[in-house]
Amino acid sequence: MRTTSAVPLRLGLSANARQFWLLVAVNAFVGAMIGLERTVPPLIAEQEFNLTSSSLILSFVAAFGLVKAITNLFAGRLGDKYGRRPVLLAGWLLALPVPLMIMLAPSWSWIIAANLLLGASQGLTWSTTVIMKIDLVGPQGRGFAMGLNEAAGYLAVAASAYLTSVIAANYGLRPEPFYLGVAFAAAGLALTALFVRETLPYTRLEAAHYRVANAPAGATPSLLTLLREGVWRNRALASANQAGLVNNLNDGVAWGLLPVYFAAQGVPLVQVGLIAATYPAVWGFAQLLTGALSDSWGRKGLIVTGMLVQGVALLGIALLNGFVPWMLSAALLGVGTAMVYPTLLAAVADASYPTWRGTAVGAYRLWRDGGLAVGAILGGLLADALSIPAAVLIVAVLTAASGLLVAVRMPETLPRPVPSEVS
């Protein structure tokens, strides 16, 4: 009788290329779902529902960010316990009604409700594709893998943001731009259901074959323990958490306030969409380089520099005027964000043990995406009390201060794992 054995698992991008690139494609559809919201919904608030308060306009960003942050936390925990693939499937099922709700919304509360669903969906889908790629590649090349993941997502954000602005300029704000969302959600669900495989076994492989200097083995810490450690005590995780929160704080302000501000200054809708798309486009492309650089240069220097570059870019948006200066500032903001985004994810993965890494990444993404809600609330209050440029100026100072805090507190986390003996 002839017996067959399963193909042995191996860590690394080349060893798992087919699944890795499939997950890159899935994450592109995840990003495209956010791109639907980068240009058109703030204008729907102002032009269709006659909202004049910046705080009310930004409420959809706050709703999205708050729910996504909380869902991130449980996505990592559930993935560690039950597997990654079921969590990814659940996220896509939540995404299906979102574009339909926006298309048919009779009031602004429907838009907020759609963003609650979208936030939950994004927390499950984006977190899980990140963790699955970390599972597949192992400790070497982690930054490069995160750069590819985030590049795919944010290039899709940029393309979707620009396409929706073009469609809106030619056909109106609703419903035509959101037909794209129906296609994106259906494609992401189909790819996941038909072709994505479970990656949880790779975490056990890594735990068996590598000693990880930054994260001693042991029982999976509780959520409360990880959250407590990540506030201050654990210098690596706490530094990453606060930088991630501030990074997305400024993204929440840019997302909700800047399209309205640029349109109020007489910038045509297609040009507003182009500025809105430039930021995530540069962010996406640059991550192909910055993620890989963090594997050789280290994590800390890129994070500090990236936060400072973001601060300078936001100063440019606040203090300069005109389409070209704003485009250049948006591009610079994308460069700074690209230096930070995949590097922070890699740093958190460095500082966590393979068997509870999903939980640690989920806790980090709770802090990071909570920044969207904080930015939306703070930005709206500052814009209503002062002005939109003043709000952006204050956020620029906070962003630079976050980078300086990382410089003072964060240890270098780039791993130097030593393979253990394998019998």
TrEMBL record:
Q: Per the UniProt record, which residue ranges are transmembrane?
A: 20-36, 56-75, 87-104, 152-172, 178-196, 302-324, 330-353, 388-408
Principal localisation: membrane
Pfam families for the chain: MFS_1
Q: Does the keyword Transport apply?
A: yes
Do the record's keywords include Transmembrane? yes
Superkingdom to which the source organism belongs: Bacteria
The protein here is known as Arabinose efflux permease family protein
Molecular function as annotated in GO: transmembrane transporter activity
Its GO CC terms are: plasma membrane
How does the record classify its membrane topology? Answer: Multi-pass membrane protein
* Location in the cell: Cell membrane
Write down the species: Deinococcus peraridilitoris (strain DSM 19664 / LMG 22246 / CIP 109416 / KR-200)
Domain Major facilitator superfamily (MFS) profile intervals: 20-414
- Spell out the PROSITE patterns in the cross-references: MFS, SUGAR_TRANSPORT_1
Keywords from the UniProt entry:
Cell membrane, Membrane, Plasmid, Transmembrane, Transmembrane helix, Transport
